[in-house]
């Protein structure tokens, strides 16, 4: 997506070979006009797949997921990150470990918000190792939903997340695919036509 790539080049900062800082339009300050364009782009790509709900993971996925949900005219569900296992019949939980941050949490879904016939689109800001998206897929599958696809704002294509999801048969659509980061350098995989 041209608008997102341009914004990344203008305001993003490659802190290292692994980390792209996008605090001024995604992770801390949010650019609402860009988020609306992002929501429309996901709705355009996934719009004919019969999606019944958009699901994201708190917190940075919420803004783009909400815009996508508006564009698709379906509800949005936020998977929560709980520090520990909670014993409650209505909660589904699965451990997600972040390699980027070196932390773990219990990704949590309240069963009442997903039904067996739901066809879900997962939206998140970054795809790195694919651990958060894989955890979301585990929870949603456990709740009986089918996975229509995963929509990502920024895919770090040099990390294994995309391939892991594709190996599970998931339709992954990333608006910006970063092929290389280095201090002060950001390169993209050219968009498919
Ligand atoms: P994975 O799910 O693909 O395996 O990714 P990983 O565990 O490595 O990512 C953990 C957290 O780090 C996620 O945020 C993710 O969005 C963020 N992250 C990963 N790579 C980058 C990067 O290059 N730049 C930035 N700014 N963030 C990155 P989170 O902890 O879930 O927090 P939140 O931002 O959604 O609240
Ligand atoms: Na995130
Ligand atoms: Na994040």
Automatic annotation (TrEMBL):
Q: Which UniProt keywords apply?
A: Cytoplasm, Glycosyltransferase, Purine salvage, Transferase
The UniProt record lists the keyword Chloroplast: no
Its UniProt entry gives the catalysed reaction(s) as: XMP + diphosphate = xanthine + 5-phospho-alpha-D-ribose 1-diphosphate
Q: Name one GO biological process term.
A: purine ribonucleoside salvage
Where in the cell? Cytoplasm
Identify the residues that bind 5-phospho-alpha-D-ribose 1-diphosphate. 128-132
Q: What is its EC number?
A: 2.4.2.22
Which enzyme class? transferase
Which pathway is this protein engaged in?
A: Purine metabolism; XMP biosynthesis via salvage pathway; XMP from xanthine: step 1/1
Signal peptide extent: none
Give the matching InterPro entries: PRTase-like (IPR029057), PRTase_dom (IPR000836), Pur/Pyrimidine_PRTase (IPR050118), Xanthine_PRibTrfase (IPR010079)
What GO CC terms are in its UniProt record?
Answer: cytoplasm
Question: Which positions does UniProt annotate for xanthine binding?
Answer: 20, 27, 156
Query: Which PANTHER family does the record associate with it?
Result: HYPOXANTHINE/GUANINE PHOSPHORIBOSYLTRANSFERASE, XANTHINE PHOSPHORIBOSYLTRANSFERASE
Q: What does this protein do?
A: Converts the preformed base xanthine, a product of nucleic acid breakdown, to xanthosine 5'-monophosphate (XMP), so it can be reused for RNA or DNA synthesis.
This protein is called: Xanthine phosphoribosyltransferase
Organism per entry: Roseburia inulinivorans DSM 16841
Task: Name the gene.
Answer: xpt
């Amino acid at each position: 997506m041209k608008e997102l790539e341009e914004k990344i080049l203008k305001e993003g900062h490659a802190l290292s070979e692994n980390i792209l800082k996008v605090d001024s339009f995604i992770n801390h300050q949010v650019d609402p006009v860009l988020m609306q364009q992002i929501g429309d782009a996901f709705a355009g790509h996934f719009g004919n797949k019969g999606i019944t709900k958009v699901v994201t993971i708190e917190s940075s996925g919420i803004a783009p997921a909400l815009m996508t949900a508006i564009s698709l005219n379906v509800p949005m569900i936020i998977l929560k990150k709980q520090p520990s296992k909670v014993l409650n019949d209505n909660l589904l939980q699965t451990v997600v470990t972040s390699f980027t941050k070196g932390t773990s949490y219990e990704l949590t879904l309240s069963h009442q918000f997903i039904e067996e016939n739901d066809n879900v689109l997962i939206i998140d800001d970054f795809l790195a190792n694919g651990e958060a998206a894989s955890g979301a897929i585990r929870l949603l599958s456990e709740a009986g939903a089918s996975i229509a696809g995963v929509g990502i704002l920024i895919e770090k294509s040099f990390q294994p997340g995309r391939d892991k999801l594709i190996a599970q048969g998931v339709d992954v659509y990333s608006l910006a695919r970063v092929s290389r980061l280095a201090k002060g350098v950001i390169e993209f995989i050219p968009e498919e036509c």
